[in-house]
Amino acid sequence: MAVSVAGDKEAEAVVFGLISRGYKLVASLEQEVTGRLATVRLIPPLTNDAGVIVDLLFASCGIEPEVVAAATNENIARGVTGPVATVGYLIAMKTLSERDTRNQDRQDLIDLIRASSPADLEVARAGAALKGRSIAEIFAHLHNVRIDWLKSGDPSLVGGLVKLEKSALSRQGLGTSPCGLRPRGGKTDRRGPRNRADQGLQAPSNGICRLHDRPRRLPSR
Q1: Which three-class secondary structure state does DSSP give residue 172?
Q2: What is the C-alpha to C-alpha distance for residues 80 and 139, in angstroms, rounded to an integer?
Q3: Which among 118, 116, 105, 123 has a CA at the least distance from the CA of 63?
Q4: What distance lies between CA 32 and its chain's CA centroid?
Q5: Could you give the CA distance from residue 41 to residue 43 in angstroms, rounded to a whole number?
């Protein structure tokens, strides 16, 4: 669940408010680059639904405020509606977190692209670009995921499509391309935030997006 907050104090207030209502704190992660509280995992106070967890994303992918602002009200369950992230922003979030060792993120990304429209992909590119990713990087990444999707469905459709090698996706090379986008503030953010609440505390492998979190202890109350 993406949560839009102004900073860590607001995020901690949300967490402690839920704890006071019976939620149990399982883990909290800090984004190494920004020092922000990135992700908090909680267990809701349910007695008949074991295994349910709640992940609160405050600064995990770095575009949570935009995700929340663009959310649309949808039917979540019978008689229940609530704000749901759009397909475009879900693709952007997965693009910022997907890597070779996170197979579920890659499969989620493939499924989202399968259900996406051209407008959704434009939103995804704009959303990921907020974290300083060049448009060329995002196009290349989505291109490779599309090939994986085609191979899983009907390999004959791949035709002459070839994956873009990671060695060709250097930031220097892509930054000088005609469709390059300068990072915000003129500086390159080589490491963006990433959610690693689910057993993902090992060092990430090299990829298009380098993202790091570390365990964080919340202040006691």
Answers
A1: helix
A2: 36
A3: 123
A4: 16
A5: 7
Residues in the chain: 221
Chain-centroid distance, C-alpha 99: 11
Report the range out of 74-88, 90-104, 110-124, 170-184 with the highest average pLDDT. 74-88
All structural domains of the chain with their residue ranges:
8-215
Cβ atoms of 30 and 56 closer than 8 Å? no
Pair of tokens at residue 111: 């499924």
Which amino acid appears at position 162 of this protein? V
Which residue, chain included where needed, has tokens 């995020």?
Answer: 11
Work out the pLDDT band at 133, boundaries 50, 70, 90: low
Helix (H) or strand (E) holding 21: none
Rg (Cα) of the chain, in Å, rounded? Answer: 18
**Confidence check: pLDDT of 71 > 90:** yes
**Position with higher pLDDT, 7 vs 209:** 7
Residue 37 has pLDDT above 90, yes or no: yes
